[in-house]
Amino acid sequence: MNLLIKGGRVIDPANNLDGAFDLLIDNGKIAKIAKGIRNGVDQIIDATGKIVSPGIVDMHVHLRQPGREDKETVATGTAAAARGGVTSVLTMPNTTPAIDDVEVVEDLLGIIKKDAVVNVFICAAITHGREGKELTDFAKLKKAGAVAISDDGVSVEDDSLMQAALKLAKKTGINVVCHSEDKSLSAAGVVNAGFTATRLGLRGVSKESEYKRVSRDIELAHKVGITVHIAHVSCKETVEIIREAKNKGIKVTCETAPHYFSLSDEAVLAYDTNMKINPPLRSKDDIEAIKQGLKDGTIDAIASDHAPHTENEKEIEFDRAEFGVVGLETELAVSITELIETGVCGWPKLVEKLSLNPAKILGINKGTLSVGADADIVVISPEEEWIVRKNELVSKSKNSPFIGRTLKGRVDCTVCKGKVVYKG
Amino acid sequence: MSWTKKDLLGLEYLSKEELELILATAESFKEISSREIKKVPALRGKTVVNLFYEPSTRTRVSFEVAAKRLSADVINIATETSSVKKGETLIDTGTNIQALKADVIVIRHNYSGAANMLARHLDISVVNAGDGWHEHPTQALLDIFTLKEKVGKIEGLNVSIVGDIAHSRVARSDIWGLTKLGAKVTVCAPKILIPEGIEHMGVRVTHNIDEAMRNADAINVLRMQFERDEKAVFPQQLEYFKTYGITLERLEKAKKDIVVMHPGPINRGIEMSSEVADGKNSVILEQVTNGIAVRMAVLFLVAQVADSKKNEFTH
User: Would the CB atoms of B89 and A315 count as touching at under 8 Å?
Assistant: First the structure.
C-alpha cells in the first residue's frame, strides 16, 4: 500500500526543506521526497497550491480517559486531533484516577491501541493522585510507556518535594512538564487581574501567580541540572524570565497556546465561560509579548491545552464554570491567522513550533519528513477561510473560544502512519 | 428616543440618552405613589418574578411594591424555598419561569454575571437587582434620581463614593451612570478596598476622606461589609470610623449643601454617625422612596420591549 502526495509545498524544518516536491509514502513510512515522482501508486493526493508539513505534535492535551468519558475519550479526542492536523498528542494525567501507576498506564495503552486514530503519548503524574505529597515511581511509569511527567492542573507546591522530583526525573531520564502556578496567589481568581476583573466584579488571577512559580521551577531545575518544560505561558513577565534564563545558558523549554496570542481578557467581558481558562486570557500587551517570544525563539512550542468540558460544567455562573477550552481543531488555523498572516513568523518557523520542537522536547521520533520516518503528515490549504461552527466540532465537548470566528488555513488532509485519518 | 433593550443588566451597557429616559420615566411615575390609590394599570396582566439567590429585604420589597403599583402580578422566589437547593441550574430555573409565561425576571445573585447569563438564554426580560460585585443598576439609578431631584442636575457635579469600592456593585453602577451623565466622580477608600484599574472607569482615587469631601456636591457612603472579610484584611471597625467615617465635624468642613447618600442598610457608627444619617444633608429615606419610581420605570420600559421583540438579544 503506497500513497503519493503530489505537487505541494513541502516544508520540513528538520531537513531544512522548503519547496515544491512530491512525497511518496510506502508501508506507513516516508519513502521518497523528490520532484516528479511517477510510478504506479495506490492512491494520489493532489496537493497543488497546498502545504505539506509533518503532522502537528501537540504536547498538551487532555483526552480525559480514564474516568471523564463524558468530556472526551481517546476516540473522540484523537478524531478531533486528526481534523486539526494533529498526528501526535501528549495526554495529561489529571484523569480519574490520575495516571499515577503502571496499571493505569497499561489500561490506557490498551484503550489507545483500540481507539486512537493518531499517536497518543502519555504524560504520567509527578505525585500520587496529583496531590503534591508523594512521588510516583518514575522509572516504572517510564518503562510502562510514559514519556513525561506532570501534575498538570496543579503545581507541586512544596519546594523540596519538587526538587526531589526533578532529581529523580533526571536519574530516570524522563521529561518534566511544569504547570507553574502559585495557588496561594491565584486563589479563587477566575479572570486576569486588572481592569477587566474590576469591571466584571470578578476575582483576579495575578500574573505573579504564574511567573513567580516559573522562576522557582527554572531555578530548581537549574540547581538539579535538568531541563524542564514550562506549560502554557500566558504573560509578558514569564516570557521575560524564560528569555533571561535562556540568555544565561540555562536549559529550559516552554510552550504557549493559541488563545494566548489571539484573545485578550476583554474577550471575557460578556461573561462567556468559553473564555474562562487557566492561566487566564491576559492583556493586549501580553499578547504582543507572547508573539515576540515566539518570534525570537524564547517560546519553543505551540500546544493547544485542549481541555474539554461538558455544557453542564460550562453553562453555569462564571465563578462556578470549569477552566479550559478545546483547541485541537483550531490550533493550526488560529496560528496561521495570528502568526503567518500578521508576519510574526513564516511557514517553516510555524512548523517548527507546532511539530518539530515539541517532538524534540519530548524526545519522540516525530515532527519530521525524513525518509524512513513515520508518515505523519498534514496537507493544508493555507489561503482557505472557514468559520468555526459548534456543531462541526468533532471533539465530544464544544467549549471553544473561537466559535463563530473566521479563520484562515484549513486542514485538507491528515495522514498518520501512512493512513489517511482525516479528509476535509 | 425610545427604549429598545429587553433587559437591564448594568449601567455600563446604557447610553447617556437611555439613562435620561429612565430618569424621565421615573419622574412621571413618582407621583403615583403619593396618590390615594397608588396604582396604575400599566403592567396589568403581566407577571414579574423576583428571583433572589441572596437574602435581601429592601431591594426585593422595593421591586415588589414597584411592580404592584403598575398592577403586575408578583411572585417571589427565594433560594431557601426553591429547587435551586436540589441542584437546578440557573438557566433551567430561568427557562422554567419563562415557560410559566412570566414577563420579567428580577434577579439578585451572589455571582457576578449571573444576570447577563440568564438574559442571554431567555427571551423574556431580565432586570439585574444586584449580581456579585458587578452591578446594581437600579440602586445607582435611584441614587442619581435622588441627586438630580435635590440639586437639579448631574452634569458637572463632584460626587465622592466612599467605602468598600472593591466589593461593591453599587459603586460600579454609580460610577458608570454618574460619569456618563457628566459628573466628576472620586472614589475614596483604604488601598486594599480600591480595585485594580478603577481609574480606567474615569474616576479619581483618593485615600483621604477629607480630600474626598472637600469639593464634593454629594457623597455616597457605602456599607462596609465586614461579614465578607474572609481574610480579615479590612481595617477594624472603629479604626475605619475614625479614618473614613462621616461625622458632623467632617461634614462642617464640606460644602454647606452637600448631599449625603447611603444605599442602606447603614452601620451606624461605622460608615457614618447617627447625627449625619438623620441630619439635614441626608437623603437616605428619599432614596428609598425614589427607588420605587425608578424600579417602576425600569419594569415598565423593559416589559414593553420584550412584548414587541420576543426573540431579539438587545444587550
Answer: yes
Q: ipTM beyond 0.90? A: yes
Transcribe B144-185 into DSSP letters.
Answer: HHHHHHHHS--TT-EEEEES--TT-HHHHHHHHHHHHTT-EE
List pLDDT tens digits, range A56-74.
Answer: 999 999 999 999 999 999 9
Selected catalytic residue, list A100, A151, A305, A412: A305
In the prediction, which pLDDT does B235 show? 72
Surface of B (162-201) touching A: CB under 8 A: 169, 172, 195-198, 200-201
Among A46-50, A390-394, B263-267, the least confident range: B263-267
Given an 8 Å threshold on Cβ–Cβ distance, is B113 in contact with A202?
yes
pLDDT given for residue B91 in this prediction:
95
**What letter would DSSP give residue A280?**
P
How far is the alpha carbon of B224 from chain A, nearest alpha carbon, in Å?
17
Instruction: Please give the domain boundaries of chain B with CATH numbers for all domains.
Output: 11-135+288-308 (3.40.50.1370), 137-283 (3.40.50.1370)
Quick one: fold of A55-362?
TIM Barrel (3.20.20)
Quick: pLDDT tens for A23-34. Answer: 999 999 999 999
**Top-level class of domain A2-51+376-382+391-423:** mainly beta
- Check: CB of residue A388 under 8 Å from CB of residue A325: no
- H-type alpha helices, chain B: 16-30, 58-69, 90-99, 114-121, 137-151, 169-180, 209-214, 237-244, 248-252, 274-277, 284-308
pTM of the model: 0.94
**Nearest residue of chain A to residue B194 (CA atoms):** A198
* Contact list, B84 vs chain A (CB under 8 Å): none
Which residues of chain A neighbour B120 with C-beta distances below 8 Å? 270
pLDDT recorded at residue B308: 72
- Per-domain residue ranges of chain A: 2-51+376-382+391-423, 55-362
Q: Beta partners for B188?
A: B162, B206
**How does pLDDT run across A109-156, given as a tens digit for each residue?**
999 999 999 999 999 999 999 999 999 999 999 999 999 999 999 999
